C-alpha cells in the first residue's frame, strides 16, 4: 500500500540540510525522507492493550461512569 505525505512550512535551513543529507547518501530527497521516517519509527514499540487500557482509565478516572448494566436496562425500558 503506497501513500503520500506532504509537509508544509519547513524552514529553508531544514530543506538545505535534507538536500545535503540526501546527496551524501546518494539518494533523492524523497528517498531520504522515507529513510528518515523509517529509521525514526523502527524503534517504536506499540503499546499493549493493557497499557492503553490503563492510560484510558487514568484519563477518565474523575469522570462519572454509568455501569453498562444500567445503560442496558435503560435501553430496554425505552423500547
Explain the overall architecture.
This protein has 79 residues and is mainly alpha-helical. The chain has one domain (12-78). Helices cover 62% and strands 0% of the residues. The mean pLDDT is 92.
Keywords:
79 residues; mainly alpha; 62% helix
Summarize the structure.
The protein is mainly α and 79 residues long.
Compute the gyration radius: what is it?
Answer: 24 Å
The SSE order reads HHHH
Q: Helix segment count?
A: 4
State the total count of DSSP E strands. 0
First-to-last CA distance: 45 Å
- Sheet of most strands: none
Main structural class: mainly alpha
For the residues shown, what is the average pLDDT?
92
What fraction of residues sit in β-strands?
under 5%
Shape: elongated
Helicity range: 55-70%
Unreliable spans: none
Total number of domains: 1
What is the topological layout?
Layout: H1 12-24, H2 29-42, H3 49-59, H4 68-78
Helix pairs in contact: 1-2
